Structures are given as structure tokens and as C-alpha cells.
Amino acid sequence: MHSLVYRSAANESFTIPEIYGMLSNAKDYNAEHGITGCLLYHNSQFLQLLEGEEGEVLKLFQKITMDKRHHDILLIESEYSNTRLFGEWSMAFHDYGQNGLSANLKLNQIDAFLKQSDAFNRKSGPVLKFFSAVKDILFSN
Which residue of 8, 19, 21, 34 is 20 to 30 Å from 70, comparing CA positions? Predict the structure, then answer.
């Protein structure tokens, strides 16, 4: 099992309907390749945690780095893991967009959302880096 966390910025031309289309394709691809994870989108920034067999995760990440719909891709953490955080989700997703919620309220929503996963039961490097990056994204404008 391998976990990988990365962050990127959406190009201005990458619209919300296109993002939802990408998400639909990603869910199908991930289900076929045994990949699970979580994708957050806020203020034109993506944060994603991918997990699965190492070769499949790295192959997908390479495809992601070649995708012209986003840029400034930063690999935050990559490590072996014994268990999945998002074992039931081919790709959990939430778009916080411009819905006027305060950053603290958004964090509370993420806490409630992620309690459905195993994220709060594991204190691995990817988990800690993922939640640190979530806070960075939500508290930035």
C-alpha cells in the first residue's frame, strides 16, 4: 500500500463543470485500478491524497503531472502504508468554492466529512501533511 499527497493550482480556463467531469472520470479510473483517496478543491487549488498499490499510484501521479489543466504541482508526501484512509471511496470530493463560509466552519465541515474515513485513526506522514495543507488552503484567500 502506498499513500501520496500533492497540491496543485487549477488553470483559469479549468471550469467547475470541467472539474466535475474530471472527477467522474477519476472515480471510474480509480475504481478500476484499486486507488482510493480524497480530493479537495478551494480557491482554484487542489489538494489530493491518493492511496493504493505503489505502481498504480505512481502511474496515476505521473498522469496528473502531465495534465495541462493545472500547474504548480507539488508532491507533499509519499510513503508506504499498512491501511487505507479512504477504503470505501474511489475519490471522496468536496468543493468549498466561494460559498461564503468562514475557514473555521469549513474546517468543521471537513472534520465531519473525514470522520467517515479512517483518517482520524492514523497519524502517518501523509495524514499529517494532508491536514496541514487543508488548513493552508482554507485559511488562504
Answer: 34
